[in-house]
Amino acid sequence: MALQSPEPFLQLSNVNVARGENIVLHDIHLSVNAGEHIAILGPNGCGKSTLIKTITCECYPIVQPETHVSIFGRSRWDLTELKKRLGVVSAELPGKQTLSTTGRDAVLTGFFSSSTLWPNLTVTDEMRARADEIIALIDAEPFRDKLVGHMSAGQQRRIMIGRALVASSQMLLLDEPSNALDIAAQQELRHLLRRLAQQGTGILLITHHVSDIIPEIDRILMMKDGRIVADGSRTELLTERSLSDLFRTEVHLTEKDGFHHAW
User: Fold this and answer.
1) For the chain, where do the domains classified as CATH 3.40.50.300 start and end?
2) In DSSP terms, which residues pair with 71 in a beta bridge?
3) Mind listing the pLDDT tens digit for each residue in 178-230?
4) pLDDT means per 10 residues in the chain (263 residues)?
5) What does the CA dihedral 180, 182, 183, 187 come to, rounded to 10 degrees?
6) Beta carbons within 10 angstroms of residue 69's beta carbon
7) Percent helix / strand / coil, the chain, rounded to 5
8) CA distance 153 to 182
9) pTM flag (> 0.70)
10) Among residues 95, 110, 169, 253, which one has the fewest Cβ atoms lying within 10 Å of its Cβ?
């Protein structure tokens, strides 16, 4: 019996994206299968976050005949429906409305792509059961009834990951997830991402911190000046030479327990 090919999650061909008057993504070609574990690595300002916004349809490519964008096999999406299949965790901390919401309710907002549980939203028993399942998965029971605004940055980030996962756990996109976290919270975040990856959740991690790249991530994309300049295995690309070229400075690298650390 022949093995089935993995379902394609993302296909980008000849994609150029402008922000204002400037083209910030140039000739992007990228194919990602559902369930893959990938890190997109590059210096600040290289276009990583714009690429995420293109994947989530917040930014649109310049219209050209050769341009092609397909997400889960479709070129057009209702954004509310897309967010149910694609969990996104941004680098920013939660907004004002979410800060006055409990952890459990903040997770439930993932079903509606809303900032809080507005009165017009109907939460079913099945949704509550799923939220409790996710809260257990992310080890957030101790602060499920705590207001998000009263949580530490690490607890907030954990709740936002739960929010991204609750409607679907097919693919998780994380944009600089360790920003604003102290050392202990960074370690907790990496342990959580490892567990999710081992359970089959696809991960697309945007970062400029090499230490954020968990051992389960086996494919590295490198971006510079709005272009993907390398796409290969972690063994091939997580080297002092490749990182020095990417960040335009001398980089030294160590490895311990599957994690790399650069300075």
Assistant:
1) 8-77+171-263
2) 10, 74
3) 988 999 999 999 999 999 999 999 999 999 899 999 999 999 999 999 999 99
4) 63 94 94 94 91 90 94 85 82 85 95 90 95 95 96 94 87 90 93 94 93 96 96 96 96 94 92
5) -70
6) 20
7) 35, 25, 40
8) 8
9) yes
10) 95
**CB atoms near residue 208 (< 10 Å):** 18
Closest CA to 162 of 197, 194, 202, 196: 196
Angle between helices 153-166 and 183-198 (to 10 degrees): 20
In whole angstroms, give the CA distance from residue 37 to residue 13. 20
Instruction: Enter the tokens of residue 67.
Output: 């341009």
C-alpha 156/C-alpha 164 separation (Å) is 12
Token pair 């296909």 is found at 11
Please answer whether residues 60 and 53 qualify as being in contact, where contact means their C-beta atoms are separated by less than 8 angstroms. no
CA distances from 250 to 229, 230, 239, 256 (A): 18, 18, 11, 20
Query: Residue 226's closest CA among 22, 24, 15, 39?
Result: 24
Check: CB of residue 189 under 8 Å from CB of residue 214. no
State the amino acid at position 85 in one-letter form.
R
CATH number attached to the domain at 8-77+171-263: 3.40.50.300
Q: How far apart are CA 206 and CA 176, in angstroms?
A: 6
